[in-house]
Write a structure and sequence with these properties.
951 residues, 7-stranded mixed beta sheet
Length: 951
């Protein structure tokens, strides 16, 4: 195994060296080290702490801070299993400068929301703390560095705080229990060849979490939270020199332990023999087949040669993925979804693997198809047209990243630098990478790619073959021996070279006869241009400078599934999905991908309950192609029996185990109870649902609604020029047919249950529960009322976390959401979901209703309202510079018949909100005489069988 690993790496390196030597435009050697991006300052303090600093203006007035520690669960001693993760929890529970709960309260007061913004995670080999800080006030940045410093070496770890946090960590552990957890505990030792990784899941062991001595976690912190294992990352709207001074002042004094424990990465042993494994669970959802080939030691060289080899690997991975996708388009596909690739397993290791979601034929055809498709690529390689398409797509992807280099969010850069520190990922920067790719990719030959894929895909190697899934169903379960034998047999089967058919380079042979623009108006305040086309279609344009290469489109009209009776319910529900699976014009979906190679574009249609619509997006250079796709959605949907059969078969198989999961059963019962078993409310799909779907009727329904653009209004937002896009709109939207069809929805009378309704659903074998409370009723719709409910819900979330999590230890996560709707009738709904222990259900319900009662009786504290306002202001500052926000808000205003100019005054209306406003809203929306309480609880044990009496 070791010999093979070295052979693969050396062959790849020699291949890269040889090509670079012949590349006239490349003036560096393959063995030269890649440079570090000029955008970022990378430094190291005398104590070994690494730092990355970059100024970036998007979003404005915000900086992303990270503390990255090369210490995760893999370093835990036997009595510390779970304490790397527990340490992460303790970072929010008292430190040098913040007492327990003070940190969260302070950060929320400046607009940093716990969970959504302020967060952390623990992995096998690292712990990462995330802290976005607004920089509109100088003291915020200083305070942010103070927080990072406390995390690095100032956690308190008082006995009381540790003991208080045990219940919260246990709730997080409880939340993760279920079929996946049970399967993984059996499977991970096999997948990781019995390495230490399988014994060090970050969540830890229940008995240790509950009973570890306090000094065990302090010992972990002393041993591993040290500067030579840390990085501080600072990216955002900040002066780099100031940031560097802050790093030095806050972290320069940290000291490493006198007797350091060596930081070693766990070794993954070589697999000694091939093996088949079958793991089933009655609550498993999808059935999955998987092949793990040998795990190879791997180190990134960070050289130009390695970079070029990585590009080759990306190219053949993309082509292999395309071939796998084509297999799913067969009338009876071998699997529902599948693929194979080379990927990282753990730090310093990677492996080639193949996997599939199994269809009705079971694992045998799925595994055989995976193996044979990999063998086809290994033996015969790829074709020139395939490589050309992959190159086009890659070059366009890098071009787009390059164009957006000054409009990329700080969080994106943070991710790169984090990977650089943890895994030595090169960070040459997009300007350099764009140059490298444009120099290297055109010169990559088909022979190189095929040689590389031949080396990468294993042949006759030791392997692990896995089947996981439900233990019930129509297909008999395989045996481990049968799994292994099936893969071995597939490896020996003769395969033929891939046959490539010719594709056109354009979507349309010729453009339609153009319509005309008959009216144009301008809204200077909102930056909108509204066009009315000759066929009555309206287009609202908002050019922006938020991105350099992004255009977004949305269009809608009333009608939808509501216009069809119950007998057509399933055909209408799946009509747009079916149409989307069959392609456009002469092209299937996979054919479309090939024709559109090198373009950034996509459009999809939807038939919802009350409306139909289209959504799409493109790069600035691909707007015409996007509009052509819109035109074809209306005029040339494709009907394909084989693709229809494939879609229905896959959906039926996915539905077969859908109700195996307790959460799915609960969700199903929830909607049935909430809406009085109204058949027009979609529930979890059943296999028999698809017996009521037919290709002809579903396609006719789609054509009924989408063959006419009558009454459609389109919104286009992004980086385009109004004068240049207008002729394209006249051509492709102005020429759309507008035949007479109904353009109003029907109110189907779907209404929530009234009164206080309580129901318990018993499903699942784990000791876990979920509490769901739903308040609903009639409401007067307005933008102001939507805002009041939004802020009320966020204040309630603060109180739920404070009370149920921090004070009582009843939950780990959960919360409320709510909305006021206008259609099909003016109404509101507030939902609260809280996972907890079964024995704590009554306590959770009581505590939640108590917090609601306080809001109704006393209103929210001004400090809590100000926290929500501060977070809203921070988010608004960001989203108001995003195309998706404007597209959604303009569309919403059009659908609800409200004035979009309200967008210009929303900040002022938020500032004017008072505790009294929210108290009135609480009294209006939290009617404790009208709510639904549902609880998901474990299955109750069956009664013991009756015993026969003695004779």
């Amino acid at each position: 195994m070791t010999i093979r690993s070295l052979r693969v790496i050396s062959a790849a390196a020699m291949l890269a060296c040889a090509v670079l030597a012949h590349a006239d435009t490349v003036d560096y050697q393959a063995s030269d080290q890649l440079p570090v991006s000029p955008q970022v300052k990378v430094g190291k303090l005398a104590n070994g702490l690494t730092y990355y600093i970059q100024k970036n203006g998007k979003p404005a007035q915000k900086v992303e801070l990270r503390l990255v520690v090369k210490a995760g669960s893999i370093l835990e001693d036997e009595d510390q299993r779970g304490l790397a993760h527990f340490t992460e929890h303790m970072a929010f529970n008292g430190s040098t400068h913040f007492k327990r709960n003070e940190l969260i309260s302070y950060l929320e007061s400046i607009g940093v929301k716990f969970g959504a913004d302020l967060n952390a995670y623990t992995g096998f080999d690292e712990t990462v703390y995330m802290l976005p800080i607004p920089t509109d006030k100088k003291e915020n940045l200083e305070k942010g560095f103070e927080v990072l410093e406390d995390w690095a070496h100032g956690l308190s770890f008082t006995d009381a705080d540790i003991d208080s946090e045990r219940a919260i960590v246990m709730e997080e552990l409880r939340r993760g229990k279920g079929a996946d957890d049970r399967v993984n505990k059996v499977l991970l030792p096999k997948l990781l060849n019995g390495s230490r990784y399988a014994e060090r899941l970050p969540i830890g062991k229940e008995e240790i979490i509950l009973h570890f001595p306090h000094d065990a976690i302090r010992r972990f912190y002393r041993d591993w939270y040290r500067p030579d294992l840390m990085a501080v990352i600072v990216v955002g709207d900040v002066d780099p020199a100031q940031a560097e001074r802050l790093v030095e002042s806050h972290f320069g004094g940290l000291k490493n332990p006198e007797q350091e424990r060596p930081r070693e990465y766990a070794a993954i042993p070589e697999r000694t023999h091939s093996e088949g494994v079958v793991v089933t669970d009655k609550e498993a959802g999808a059935n999955v087949a998987y092949i793990r080939y040998p795990i190879l030691a791997h180190t990134d060289a960070n050289t130009y040669g390695q970079y070029r080899h990585d590009l080759i690997e990306s190219l053949y991975s993309a082509m292999l993925s395309q071939r796998m996708a084509e297999l799913t388009q067969q009338a009876e596909p071998p699997f529902i979804q599948g693929g194979s690739s080379m990927g990282q397993v753990a730090h310093g290791y990677r492996s080639f693997s193949a996997g599939a979601v199994v269809g009705k034929g079971g694992p045998a055809p799925a595994l055989a198809a995976l193996v044979q498709e990999d063998e086809r690529a290994r033996q015969f390689g790829f074709t020139a047209p395939e490589l050309e398409r992959a190159k086009k797509t890659m070059l366009r992807s890098y071009e787009r990243m390059y164009k957006e280099r000054d409009k990329s969010d700080s969080a994106e850069y943070v991710g790169e630098y984090q990977r650089s520190f943890l895994d030595q990922e090169p960070i040459p920067g997009i300007e350099n990478e764009y140059r490298y790719v444009n120099q290297m990719v055109p010169g990559i030959s088909l022979e190189e790619v095929n040689a590389a894929v031949k080396l990468a895909i294993p042949a006759n190697e030791k392997k692990l073959v896995v089947y996981t899934g439900s233990d019930h169903g129509d297909t008999p379960l395989p045996t481990p021996a049968a799994l292994l034998a099936g893969v071995d047999a597939a490896e020996q089967m003769t395969v033929q070279a891939h046959e490539e058919k010719a594709y056109g380079s354009t979507l349309m042979a010729h453009a339609p006869k153009a319509g005309r623009i008959v009216k144009q108006s301008r809204d200077a305040a909102l930056g909108l241009t509204t066009l009315t086309l000759g066929n009555g279609v309206k287009v609202v344009l908002k050019p922006t400078d938020f991105k350099n290469d992004q255009v977004m489109l949305s269009g809608s009209r009333f009608g939808g599934q509501s216009l069809y009776g119950q007998q057509d319910m399933f055909n209408a529900r799946y009509a747009s999905a079916i149409a989307g699976q069959m392609g456009l014009g002469a092209y299937s979906p996979t054919d479309l991908q090939k024709v559109l190679a090198g373009k950034t574009v996509g459009v999809s249609a939807s038939l919802s309950l009350l409306s139909e619509g289209l959504s799409g997006g493109s790069g600035s250079a691909d707007v015409e192609t996007m509009l052509q796709l819109v035109y074809l959605e209306f005029t040339a949907p494709r009907k394909d029996t084989a693709l229809y059969d494939s879609f229905i078969g896959k959906q039926r198989e996915l539905a077969r185990n859908a109700l195996s999961r307790p959460e799915a059963v609960f969700n199903d019962e929830y909607y049935a109870t909430l809406y009085n078993n109204n058949p027009r409310v979609a529930k979890v799909p059943r296999p028999e649902d698809f017996d009521q779907v037919g290709l002809d009727r579903a396609f006719d329904i789609y054509r009924d609604r989408m063959s006419s653009a009558r009454d459609f209004t389109f919104f286009i937002v992004g980086s385009f020029d109004v004068d240049k896009i207008k002729p394209l709109l006249a051509t492709y939207l102005g020429s759309l047919p507008v035949g007479a069809i109904p353009v109003a929805y029907k109110d189907l009378g779907v209404r929530p249950v009234r009164g206080v309704v309580k129901k318990e659903v018993n499903k699942g074998s784990e000791a876990k529960a979920t509490v769901s409370l739903t308040f609903s009723g009639d409401a007067r719709f307005s933008d102001a009322e939507r805002l009041r409910l939004q802020f009320l819900v966020e204040v309630l979330n603060i109180k739920l976390i404070e009370s149920l999590r921090e004070q009582k230890g009843l939950i780990y996560s959960g919360g409320a959401s709510g909305s006021v709707s206008k259609l099909p009738y003016e109404s509101y709904m507030v939902g609260i979901t809280l996972p907890c222990a079964p024995e704590n259900v009554d306590k959770v319900v009581a505590a939640t209703l108590a917090e609601i009662a306080k809001l109704k009786e006393d209103g929210p504290a001004l400090a809590d309202l100000n926290k929500v306002k501060a977070n809203w202001q921070e988010n608004h500052l960001k989203v108001v510079r995003e195309n998706g926000y404007w597209l959604g808000q303009l569309q919403s205003a059009q659908i609800n018949g409200t004035d979009p100019k309200a967008l210009l005054t929303v900040a002022r209306r938020v500032d004017a909100l008072t505790p009294a406003d929210l108290q009135a809203a609480a009294r209006r929306y939290f009617d404790t005489d009208n709510y639904l309480q549902m609880v998901l609880a474990p299955e109750k044990p069956a009664a013991p069988p009756a015993q026969a009496g003695a004779q």
